[in-house]
Amino acid sequence: MTNLGIGLIGYAFMGAAHSQAWRSAPRFFDLPLDPAMTVLCGRNADAVQAAAGKLGWQETETDWRKLLTRDDVQVIDICTPGDSHAEIAIAALQAGKHVLCEKPLANTVAEAEAMTAAAEAARANGVRSMVGFTYRRVPAIGLARQLVAEGKLGTIRHVRAQYLQDWIADPEAPLSWRLDKEKAGSGALGDIGAHIIDLTQYITGDAITEVSGQLETFVKERPVAAEHSGLAGTAGAERGPVTVDDAAVFLARFASGALGVYEATRFATGRKNAIRIEINGSAGSLAFDFEDMNLLHYYDATEDARTAGFRRILATEAAHPYVEAWWPPGHLLGYEHGFTHQVVDLVTAIADGADPAPSFADGLRVQRVLAAVEASSASRQWQEIPE
Amino acid sequence: MTNLGIGLIGYAFMGAAHSQAWRSAPRFFDLPLDPAMTVLCGRNADAVQAAAGKLGWQETETDWRKLLTRDDVQVIDICTPGDSHAEIAIAALQAGKHVLCEKPLANTVAEAEAMTAAAEAARANGVRSMVGFTYRRVPAIGLARQLVAEGKLGTIRHVRAQYLQDWIADPEAPLSWRLDKEKAGSGALGDIGAHIIDLTQYITGDAITEVSGQLETFVKERPVAAEHSGLAGTAGAERGPVTVDDAAVFLARFASGALGVYEATRFATGRKNAIRIEINGSAGSLAFDFEDMNLLHYYDATEDARTAGFRRILATEAAHPYVEAWWPPGHLLGYEHGFTHQVVDLVTAIADGADPAPSFADGLRVQRVLAAVEASSASRQWQEIPE
Amino acid sequence: MTNLGIGLIGYAFMGAAHSQAWRSAPRFFDLPLDPAMTVLCGRNADAVQAAAGKLGWQETETDWRKLLTRDDVQVIDICTPGDSHAEIAIAALQAGKHVLCEKPLANTVAEAEAMTAAAEAARANGVRSMVGFTYRRVPAIGLARQLVAEGKLGTIRHVRAQYLQDWIADPEAPLSWRLDKEKAGSGALGDIGAHIIDLTQYITGDAITEVSGQLETFVKERPVAAEHSGLAGTAGAERGPVTVDDAAVFLARFASGALGVYEATRFATGRKNAIRIEINGSAGSLAFDFEDMNLLHYYDATEDARTAGFRRILATEAAHPYVEAWWPPGHLLGYEHGFTHQVVDLVTAIADGADPAPSFADGLRVQRVLAAVEASSASRQWQEIPE
Amino acid sequence: MTNLGIGLIGYAFMGAAHSQAWRSAPRFFDLPLDPAMTVLCGRNADAVQAAAGKLGWQETETDWRKLLTRDDVQVIDICTPGDSHAEIAIAALQAGKHVLCEKPLANTVAEAEAMTAAAEAARANGVRSMVGFTYRRVPAIGLARQLVAEGKLGTIRHVRAQYLQDWIADPEAPLSWRLDKEKAGSGALGDIGAHIIDLTQYITGDAITEVSGQLETFVKERPVAAEHSGLAGTAGAERGPVTVDDAAVFLARFASGALGVYEATRFATGRKNAIRIEINGSAGSLAFDFEDMNLLHYYDATEDARTAGFRRILATEAAHPYVEAWWPPGHLLGYEHGFTHQVVDLVTAIADGADPAPSFADGLRVQRVLAAVEASSASRQWQEIPE
């Protein structure tokens, strides 16, 4: 089987998740190409060396540009903060490398547009690109999309989506790069709000056309962390400004006329990673919560009123997306499995000469919603999403 | 409309619940007879007077035998401890009064047999009798029985039932009449175990034929309460023996071959009134928990594996038993509504000249299972239920 | 004990609920006055006569003005559609009658202001008034307010509230007075949205200061029902316009800075009466769903991370609001109990010469939020709530 | 770092799970030795070759005895059916190889005794042995054990445990080796009942001393599958006898006096892998369900009644067992992670010269309970567990 050399840039939280995916995918799925964990890239030579040993990468580089010149690397996997996505991705695509880029696609619409244009140009040369909205590949989410596509929900009326975390609810939680607008672009909005925008558009097959939103930074200053590289850190005496939103809420209108209500926050005390999506249609409803990620709740309104009720579907059957490759029914999958499924779909698309989804254009569409929410928060009016 | 005079004996917890039922039933249901809250009976003249005023009874008596001679009383409603059930019920039936008797029917099989014989004899004269297994009349339970009767579960394989409470988990909880074998007959077994025996036989339409059980009294001595009349009390320095079981567990075999597992306890810390029943059949399953008493969970195994799942049926639709008389969907019923439904069914049966269920014979059948569990606990062997 | 004569106007859904409350309250609670179910009022003589017999009222009237002149009536209980609230309530107050008025207080802010002024004027004469936001009196809700008031949640950051029903999700569900702006004032917004506005302000002790909202009528025309008096009806060939909203969504800002997200809809297929409220504070969170109305979920963020978790509090302990009067722990209360508690609080306030809550001024505050949501939907901008 | 050569025997369901564990453990945990996936063993040369390629093993063998002579293999990992456990494990231990043996330890008590004796003998030479009760290493289960060990539950009163599956509820599900007593030893009892016996003894730190049980084979004959090697198969016309139990139920008494109720079945329609454990003590309770495996429910009875309630602990905090090595809070772990934790603990014990748990003696103790349940089912009496 042909090798597919991977170059991964970044080795923190996302880098570890992607590494596990590249390692596991060929062990459970029949891939048409054989991914090789060729090179891990990071700026600090010692740190990247240590990470490569730990995560199982064969070699290291400290300059991502080097990856683009290597013949043994066919895929660039970008797990850096958002401020470097555009530069790396565009260069990689121009160098003829397939690109998997973590979400949000970029920190600005302009960057995302440039990236999408680069992806379109590269596509003409058979170069593939994909943005990492991994949660699409949770089996229960895949099932949700199938049920909507099959018409089981009828006309969609309501979309309600929340992404609730609480990791900075404590005002003494330290600054990290995720609280720095320069690095992260935005706060809860882009980091987690982007996921529920993508997921709801993906599940419904519909597009948000306008929004009315509000951003809020509840805690304006925080202790400066000794290190800025992760979610956690050690608080010191020095304080610095939080330059991104702690929470974002917005109303949305879909092309179909459906009403959306969205909330992304890092201040929902007690909620750790609660991606909650509920969709109500004229013929049925769906509900999902990532804190019970193997479950999809489905209500069929066409059933006899006497026995109708939300079904607790344990999405661990062979009939559910991706599940056949794993364990028997009732043996749960976890967070990291979505990344493995992402690798499966990307590698398959590359081998088939097909376009993987979500595309950079899909990422751009999400970026435009994010920008519209920000604009609406400033203007205190509804804001349309340009098509 | 013809009056139906009620004489209620006992005015503690059960007396209050029955009073609310007699009061509410005609306000929500179209009854064929008009129940009159004629007379409340209790041994202490002052206390019964006060209770009658509070609970809404027109008159009082201190000797239950007086009720049997009153022409304005057609129904004797027995809410006393189990040790007086047989005497009162048999006398009432012989006096031509319809009888509603709280569960368990009696404290011994012999008493229950005599009561059943008396009920049979009275029946020939058009006198009706009923035992108060009220939980049968929770809408979700009624629905469960319907689904089994319709064959939706196929062949029943498993019955698992628990009645979990914790009100004496604290060793300093005081003695009450419910912990006194003379008064109560048994402890958790007869008080709450009786309910799950009745409910599971009712829902499945099947009969337990043999059991292997064990009783346990975890706390052998307790403070003597100032008063013995209720669930609560004030602990003093004096201690007395607990003469009933704190918990009862048993395996059961049904006539159909289904396997049952039962547990009744007052020591399940944190469980307040958790009547949990799960039934697995070849074609489907049902699950119920009284702590969410408006819900029935139903799994249809004949559905497509992709969308099969336990349905959370909110049994508040007009299509569900008894519900049409109450509120719109989603407006929950509570504990006391079962008693109201019991009144509806009893009054209807009296008017129709029909036998209400559960009959004293049904109560006797439960009593025989209780006795077999006790015998098995002593013999450490399986014990058959005589037919 | 002194009698307190009640005159109830209206005998549909709300009338039945209020009747059960007047009947039950003195049977479970020690009231300082003895409510008499004196007179039921409705325009159709035969229908009101039948209803009075069914619901247990002593006499009937067909003209509500007659009630105001009766010496045996001290309380006017208004259960009519919103378009008559103002006229009746103001006249009653001026006649020196205490008033309990169903929510929403009125169909317009102007009416609500006039009613509030009348209530203020009457108050000087010892006349009491109260608006019927009954859900405040669900024990779990009362507990929620206590916990917030005790500071257990710290600084409130997020309020998210949904009132989800589905009774007109079917486009063929017929017109009723609730879909007629003349009668009902608004649709989901005023009927159910009013409840979550009131509940969240009540629980948090905070006030909404501005909103950005959107109303939607998904189904513009519906079959004309044979009768317009209830939730259900029979569809005919004729169709008429729906003049109220099917759904209302809005963002809100509280005086404290907390962010609110609200949604009220009659199109949430599978949700029957789901009043869902979640409140996140710096020190803890609360969650409630009326479809499990006896439960409150509470997260204490000050606990050890190892054992912290949302607590499923079964609000049926004697320590919980109103519960001591009812049943032992784990014996659930239902929808109608809130109405009984409302009667208890009103009668107690009247006897004590105290002001019951929620006052007409509280109702006016809710009305102003409703009006601001409507205005915002039209202007597509944020709208402030006048103080 | 020193290599630790692994030889895995068997490559079906369990072999795949163990392979993923050997592969992942060093990527997330800091292991003191470096496990090498040296050799995979199976009887069919082609099949084992294919499996080795798929699962990532360097070499293959078709005779397990060869593994015992290889210097590059230090650990024998036994994933074969139970009938070969004793022979392989004893030979491996005698050859000085550390042994990880899948559960149940053996098919008979005699075999398990011989294995335990062999483990004891080998231990003197620094050779380690461990039985694969993997569920002990689910973080929520580890937390449960900690809480009990810390006394948070007080005196344990009740243990109730169910292992519910439904994969042969359909009478047409084909025969597999798991339904053949020669291969599997027993059915639901040994396959899944063994897990809940081990888990409850592990969590409570207590031992079952006597049991009263019943086994049942609901479906006596089934279609002969084309292949016998997995859970699934293709039904043919030929039928063969089911020689193991479909379900096992039993009561148990613990050394402490606690009462246990157990149920293991493959006929609980709709339950896929529901390992449900609830433990009630005088000071608190715990509840767990593997279908929500990241959750532990904990009730603290010493809390104020007003706010006491089962806490839904999402066991994904760094403070929870094993979790720190994985993802941020709320990012769930799955079924396979328990196997990875097992590898971590085994490798650590080998490096430390310590005895890993659960030992073969622990496995023997479970085997004796299994045997006592079988004996009790035959004798219809309680059966003591020999010490």
Description:
Chains A, B, C, D: InterPro entries: Gfo/Idh/MocA-like_OxRdtase_N (IPR000683), Gfo/Idh/MocA_oxidrdct_glycsds (IPR050463), GFO_IDH_MocA-like_dom (IPR055170), NAD(P)-bd_dom_sf (IPR036291). Chains A, B, C, D: Keywords: Oxidoreductase. Chains A, B, C, D: This is Gfo/Idh/MocA family oxidoreductase. Chains A, B, C, D: Residues 5-131 form the Gfo/Idh/MocA-like oxidoreductase N-terminal domain. Chains A, B, C, D: One of its GO terms (molecular function) is nucleotide binding. Four copies of one chain form a homotetramer. With 387 residues, chain A is α/β, with parallel strands linked by helices. In chain A, strand 2, helix 2 (45-55) and strand 3 (59-61) form a beta-alpha-beta unit. Chain A contains ten helices and 17 strands. Chain A starts with a strand and ends with a strand. Chain A has two domains: 2-135, NAD(P)-binding Rossmann-like Domain (Rossmann fold), CATH 3.40.50; 138-356 and 365-379, Dihydrodipicolinate Reductase, domain 2. Chain A has helices spanning 13-28, 45-55, 64-69, 85-94, 109-123, 139-149, 181-184, 188-204, 337-352, 360-379, and strands at residues 3-9, 34-41, 59-61, 75-78, 98-102, 129-132, 156-164, 208-216, 221-225, 235-241, 247-254, 259-265, 274-281, 284-289, 295-300, 310-314, 383-384. In chain A, 33% of the residues lie in helices and 27% in strands. The mean pLDDT of chain A is 96. In chain A, the strands form three sheets. In chain A, strands 16-15-14-13-7-12-11-8-17 form a nine-stranded mixed sheet. In chain A, strands 3-2-1-4-5-6 form a six-stranded parallel sheet, with helices on both faces. A two-stranded antiparallel sheet of chain A has the order 9-10. Chains in contact: A-B, A-C, A-D, B-C, B-D, C-D. Chains A and D meet through helix 1 of A and helix 1 of D.
